[in-house]
C-alpha cells in the first residue's frame, strides 16, 4: 500500500493506493492511525478478489453478511473514518459489479484488493465522534443539537 498527502495543511488530502491482497478496512485504519486522522471522508474505485457486504436488518439490529468470492469491479466506494474512543472506525458503503453486468451493494465489512484500489481520503475540518445509539443498535456520528451548532465549529484536535 502506498500513500501521499496531496493538499494544503488546513484540509489534508491523501491518495492511498492499495495493492493486490491488501485488506481495505484494516488498511484505512492503519492510514488514519499513522497520519493521526481523527475524521475523514473517502471515495474509491478499483477491484476486489473477494468482498463481504452487509445488509442491516432493522429487526435484529445485525448485519446480514453477503459474501462474493469472485473478481468484481468497485463501481463506487464511499465512506468516512471517525473516532470511537481513540480508535479509528471505518463506515463505508460499496457497489460492486460482476462480469455479467450485475451489481451488488451494501455496507463494506471486508474486502481483498485485486488488482488495485485507488482511494482519495480527505481530512475533515472538525473532529467527529461516534456514540452507540441503543435505538438503532449502531455507533452513529454524534452531533450536538442544532441550537448548539450555531457557534463556530469545534477546532480540530490531533490525536497524540
Topology:
Blueprint (H helix, E strand, L loop, with lengths): L1 E4 L7 E6 L5 H11 L5 E18 L4 E7 L3 E13 L2 E11 L5 E21 L6 E4 L4 E4 L4 H4 L11
Antiparallel strand pairs: 1-2, 2-7, 3-4, 3-5, 3-7, 5-6, 6-7, 8-9
Radius of gyration: 17 Å
Output the helix-strand order: EEHEEEEEEEH
Biggest sheet overview = 7 strands, antiparallel
| CATH fold naming | 60s Ribosomal Protein L30, Chain: A
Task: Write the CATH homologous superfamily.
Answer: Hypothetical protein, similar to alpha- acetolactate decarboxylase, domain 2
Q: What CATH architecture would you give? A: 2-Layer Sandwich
Q: Helical residue percent?
A: under 10%
Proportion of β residues? over 45%
The number of helices is 2
Unreliable runs? none
Q: How many domains, in number, for the residues? A: 1
User: Which CATH class is shown?
Assistant: Alpha Beta
How many individual β-strands?
9
Shape from CA axes? Answer: globular
Provide the structure class.
mainly beta
Amino acid at each position: 500500500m502506498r500513500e501521499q498527502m496531496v493538499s494544503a495543511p488546513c484540509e489534508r488530502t491523501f491518495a492511498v493506493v492499495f495493492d493486490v491482497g491488501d485488506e481495505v478496512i484494516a488498511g484505512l485504519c492503519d492510514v488514519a492511525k499513522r497520519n493521526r486522522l481523527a475524521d475523514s471522508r473517502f471515495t474509491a474505485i478499483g477491484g476486489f478478489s473477494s468482498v463481504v457486504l452487509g445488509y442491516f436488518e432493522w429487526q435484529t439490529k445485525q448485519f446480514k453478511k453477503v459474501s462474493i468470492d469472485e473478481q468484481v469491479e468497485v463501481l463506487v466506494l464511499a465512506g468516512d473514518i471517525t473516532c470511537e474512543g481513540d480508535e479509528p472506525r471505518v463506515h463505508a458503503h460499496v457497489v460492486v459489479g460482476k462480469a455479467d453486468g450485475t451489481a451488488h451493494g451494501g455496507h463494506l465489512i471486508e474486502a481483498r484488493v485485486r488488482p488495485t484500489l485507488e482511494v482519495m481520503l480527505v481530512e475533515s475540518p472538525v473532529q467527529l465522534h461516534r456514540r452507540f445509539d441503543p435505538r438503532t443498535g449502531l455507533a452513529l456520528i454524534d452531533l450536538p443539537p442544532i441550537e448548539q451548532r450555531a457557534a463556530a465549529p469545534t477546532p480540530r484536535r490531533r490525536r497524540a
